[in-house]
Specification:
The strands form three sheets. Strands 14, 15, 16, 17, 18, 19, 20 and 21 form an eight-stranded mixed β-sheet that branches. A six-stranded mixed barrel has the order 3-4-9-6-8-7. Strands 13-22-12-23 form a four-stranded antiparallel β-sheet, with helices on both faces. The protein starts with a helix and ends with a helix. The protein contains 25 helices and 23 strands. It is an alpha+beta fold.
Length: 812
């Protein structure tokens, strides 16, 4: 009953001061809501179970070549079979590879992303089709693999949700596939772009040792009950050691020099990728914002307790114990915090939308990111903890107040005692320190982002349009057919209005794809213990270099007059400087296809280095280009340089391609500027959000400084009146109040800058081209925060300077 009585009394007290109530609730809503929004991201990405039974036992398995700068490589079929048959830590494993197929016979040709997988995938994931059946071991035999399992969405799109879909046919790349099953709604693997699953059937040749090193596939496994990632890693390492013992001497030497092995990692970690660091950084930032909000509210509560000292003392004199007074104030604090938490849920909803808009969340629908029960519990816990944090100091201050002294003061004002003044001052110092920390972090990220943006990608991105094609094996399974298609497409594209240059490339920069391979250099022998040259390989034509405006540093690039069968190559500046620093790379020969009988390609030119993955990457691996059409390739990209808006060329380009081959779809149509912009997303999002949080912290700190000084001035009205009556001038009063605020701000700035520099390692991984101890950022934060604090101090100081001595003395 006492608690209910305290609660009713708290409600009445808060409703008597609606301004105070609104200010506190809004302040807490901002802090609690921001924390709940970030936690909802962390909860969805890191804490919720994956949508597969016992998903925490799933692991990704890679081949790795650490000494060649290739930590994650694909898996060859023989390596997969070794791990499947000999690693007891795996309960089940599966192998899969991407397969872009052209769907025809269903209206306009459409490119579908399929997954060619071993039938064991559905055992690994422990998910069964909603209709029909999954792929079976009988489908893993070549010639018996023309079946497909559809996603729920593709089933709805192609067959309108008809139950008799099993047994129907699809035409993919000119071949007929029988539908044997439909996955349940919401099933995703490995992402929502994959719309059907077809068998990965191994031929005897693919399963032989000759295929080791042919690594274009991925591997996923399910750990056996009780097995750990470390145990699986040890077993994979042991398998590779045994394989190396029986391998030919040359192969074993290559494996040793490259550090070749296997890598087993938690599957969730691979899905999250580089999001973990920014999310944890932002969670720390919003926790600091919440601390500032608590400090602000604590100051408001202290001021309110001081204003209620007489009321509380009267209650004490009438028999209310100090424990009852303390409990009463804590109930008020908790009520305020709960109201702030409820309002914070609305802030969290909009904050989560902001996070997703900024691109911080994963685009993979495997992750369910929303304000669910866990987030609500987090918000409730945050509210309770917040209520205790900002309520404990005012409650203890009230409990320590001398009833007799307060009652002796009568109607005169009181400051609440030295201890409460010190607490308020300490809270202001803490607010300024935290704001300084956040501002330094935001400043470093801004400087880093600007440094990244200023980096050259190695080409001119303005006015470039890219689009990917999907070539089926029939009729483009031969290099000659690809050459003819390339020639027709480029000639037709260059004839379109506004197109200056057109070309083809196997993998567009900043598209997320990559292809790498080892090679040899004629006359070059690696030092003992050093691996063979290993670089990024691209197939391109001369139009690609012209369309991208990649500078030709020496020699020439490919030309239409080159013999289609000529074995020639173009290399980049890294290759030339690494292997031929004192001579020319033009005329040298590189060998592909093995050490024993390599296919030699003569270098005809050297071009500038291109950043393929991101503006923040430091290119250390060379790139060599081969003529487009020397080998078949299923997914080339067109690159066009336009003199008009690139978007205006899209429809004419589609029409031109349809005239050449109506069954050839055009996908991933984007400008190069859009691709680069997308690559910056993981840097831009944390930067923008930290700037927002730092701005909120700055505003709350300024409000806190103003509130403390304004309250101090109101409590010292009598003292200031006496000073002015005794001859103090306006400037003297201004300096007095500004000195008080300036001291607090200076201490807070010094502490905040010191802590920011000490903790700057938390954002070290996000920095590029800027030091953690950048003096420009530190000086800028001190100047900016100092200026804002000066304004916050000046207003109460000016009010103090205008005190009427007569009125002040009359109040006393």
């Amino acid at each position: 009953m006492n608690v209910l009585h305290d609660l009713r009394y708290a409600v009445r007290q808060l409703l008597r001061r609606p301004g105070f109530l609104i200010a506190v609730v809004l302040t807490l809503a901002l802090g609690i809501g921001a924390n709940a929004a970030i936690f909802s991201m962390i909860n969805g990405l890191m804490l919720k179970p994956l949508p597969y039974p016992d998903g925490d036992r799933l692991v990704a398995v890679y081949n790795t070549y650490p000494k060649m700068g290739l930590p994650n490589a694909g898996v060859s079929i023989p390596d997969y079979l070794d791990r499947r048959d000999r690693a007891e830590a795996f309960e089940a494993v599966a192998m899969y590879t991407w397969d872009a197929s052209n769907l025809t016979g269903q209206g306009r040709p459409e490119r579908l992303l399929a997954l060619r997988t071993t039938p064991s995938l559905f055992d690994v994931l422990r998910v069964s089709p909603a209709i029909g059946r999954a792929l079976g071991e009988e489908h893993a035999e070549p010639g018996n693999d023309r079946v497909a399992v559809l996603s729920h969405g593709l089933w709805q799109q192609l067959f309108g949700g008809r139950e008799d879909v099993v047994g129907r046919d699809l035409v993919l790349d000119g071949e007929t596939f029988e539908v044997i099953g439909v996955m349940p709604p919401g099933f995703v693997f490995p992402n929502q772009q994959v719309r059907l699953w077809i068998p990965f059937a191994f031929t005897p040749e693919q399963m032989s040792d000759d295929e080791r090193g042919t690594e274009y596939s991925n591997m996923i496994g399910r750990l056996a009950p009780g097995a750990t990632v470390d145990q699986a890693q040890q077993q994979v390492d042991r398998i590779h050691e045994l394989n190396k013992e029986r391998a030919p001497a040359g192969v074993a030497e290559f494996w040793t020099n490259a550090g070749f092995g296997g890598r087993v990692v938690d599957y969730r970690s691979e899905l999250i990728g580089e999001l973990r660091g920014p999310l944890m950084l932002l969670q720390v930032a919003v926790a600091l914002v919440l601390l500032i909000a608590c400090a602000n509210v604590a100051n408001l509560m202290l001021a309110r307790v001081t204003a209620r000292r007489r009321e509380l003392s009267v209650r004490t004199a009438l028999g209310a114990g100090k424990r009852r007074i303390t409990r009463q104030l804590l109930v008020e604090s908790l009520l305020l915090a709960l109201l702030g938490g409820l309002a914070g849920l609305a802030v969290a909803h909009f904050g989560l939308q902001l996070l997703l808009w900024a691109g911080l969340g994963s685009t993979n629908t495997l992750f369910d990111i929303d304000l669910d029960g866990s987030v609500l519990l987090f918000a409730l816990a945050s509210a309770v903890l917040t209520g205790i944090l900002f309520g404990i100091a005012p409650a203890l201050t009230a409990a320590r107040t001398s009833t007799a002294e307060v009652l002796k003061e009568g109607g005169r004002s009181a400051s609440g005692g030295t201890s409460s003044q010190r607490i308020r001052a300490l809270l202001v110092v803490a607010q300024v320190a935290v704001a300084a920390m956040l501002l330094v972090g935001a400043g470093l990220l801004i400087r880093s982002f600007l440094a990244v943006q200023s980096e050259s990608p190695g080409f001119t991105q303005q006015g470039v349009l890219t689009a990917q094609l999907s070539l089926p094996d029939d009729p483009y399974g031969e290099p000659a057919a690809v050459r003819n298609l390339r020639r027709d497409l480029v000639e037709r594209a260059e004839g379109l209005p506004g197109i200056e240059h057109a070309g083809m490339i196997s993998t567009t920069p900043f598209s997320g794809g990559n292809s790498q391979a080892s090679y040899t250099i004629e006359g070059y022998e690696p030092a003992p213990g050093e691996s063979q040259p290993h670089g990024q390989v691209r197939m391109a034509d001369g139009g690609y270099f012209r369309a991208m405006e990649i500078p030709v540093l020496e020699g020439r690039v490919f030309d239409a007059s080159d013999d289609p069968e000529a074995r020639i190559a173009v290399v980049d500046e890294i290759f030339a400087e690494r292997y031929f620093p004192d001579s020319t790379a033009v005329g040298q020969r590189i060998g592909l296809g093995g050490d024993e009988d390599p296919m030699w390609h003569t270098v005809i030119g050297v071009v500038g280095t291109v950043r393929h993955g991101g503006l923040d990457e430091q290119p250390t691996k060379e790139t060599y280009y081969l003529p487009f059409g020397t080998r078949s390739f299923s997914g080339p990209s067109l690159v066009l340089r336009t003199s008009m808006a690139p978007s205006a060329a899209i429809e004419p380009l589609r029409a031109a391609i349809a005239e050449i081959d109506p069954n050839l779809p055009l996908t991933r149509v984007r400008t190069m500027e859009e691709l680069i912009d997308l690559s910056l997303q993981t840097r831009r999002a944390p930067m923008l959000l930290l700037v927002v949080f730092a701005a909120v912290a700055l505003v709350l700190s300024a409000v806190g400084i103003y509130g403390v000084l304004a309250y101090s001035v109101s409590q010292r009205t009598g003292e200031l009146g006496v000073r002015m009556a005794l001859g103090a001038r306006v400037g003297d009063v201004l300096r007095l109040v500004l000195r008080q605020g300036g001291t607090l701000v200076a201490i807070g700035l010094a502490a905040g800058i010191a802590l920011a520099l000490a903790l700057s390692g938390l954002i070290g991984a996000q920095l590029h081209g800027v030091s953690r101890f950048d003096p420009l950022v530190v000086v800028g934060v001190v100047a900016f925060l100092g200026a804002v604090a000066a304004v916050a101090c000046l207003l109460p100081a000016w009010r103090a300077a205008r005190v009427d001595p007569i009125e002040a003395l009359r109040e006393e």
